[in-house]
Amino acid sequence: MKTLALKIEYDGKDFSGWQIQPEQRTVQGEIMKVLAYYCGEEVNLPGSGRTDAGVHARGQVAHAVLTEQFRIPENKIIQVMNSRLPDDIVISGARLLDTEFHSRFDAVKREYIYRICSDESVADRRFTNHVQHQVKLEKLQASADIFLGEHDFTAFSKHNPQTASYVCNVDICKWTQIDERSYQLRIRANRFVYGMVRAVTGAMLEISRGKNTIEETRAMLEAQDRNAITYLAPAKGLTLEKIYYPEDVELFG
Length: 253
Prior knowledge:
Layout: E1 3-10, H1 27-39, E2 56-65, H2 77-84, E3 89-97, E4 109-117, E5 129-130, H3 137-144, E6 149-152, E7 167-177, E8 182-189, H4 196-208, H5 214-223, E9 238-244
Parallel strand pairs: 2-9, 4-5
Antiparallel strand pairs: 1-2, 1-3, 4-8, 4-9, 6-7, 7-8
């Protein structure tokens, strides 16, 4: 049997997150329906990460071990699957692998982008968080340095009984001004825990608008007390941008 690796884009606004849930519309669930049609039975589709309700993706990766009934040539998979998927999901890459591959456990780094704007825009409203305070880039970047390196992110996460450790190693956390009204955060780590990116982003925005200080936020991180967090940045500004794999795992370039 072959393993199918998929690179997936989706607009998360109308989904209850990535992971399949009873009586909920999920990204994983919609793609599994298509795979079941071509495989003749349900196949599992683990993803590289479980995005929350409303979170988008440009570089989600998932895999499925295919049945013998799956006969689509590799160069036709994208076209065939997209023809049966809803408009808010797009398969942008597909590989048939002869070797073992696990989209989640083989990943070595994940990267997210969080977008904010200082003025409301119809064009950006689905993918950007409109902030109503004056954005201070120097404060945002100074606050981003708090989260660089290896830390226990218990304070900046939601409780998940399945999470054994909240320690993550962040190697990129940087704000960039895109134009006069738009800014984005790029954050990359070996792993992220549930709600972490939105909590970290929310904390930085609180510093930018003067509600908290860098010292207070650093103390929250060290105290590992999630009850101290008051603001979770809205999901719509967040996009899972890229998944990194070891150099010997050749997927989508």
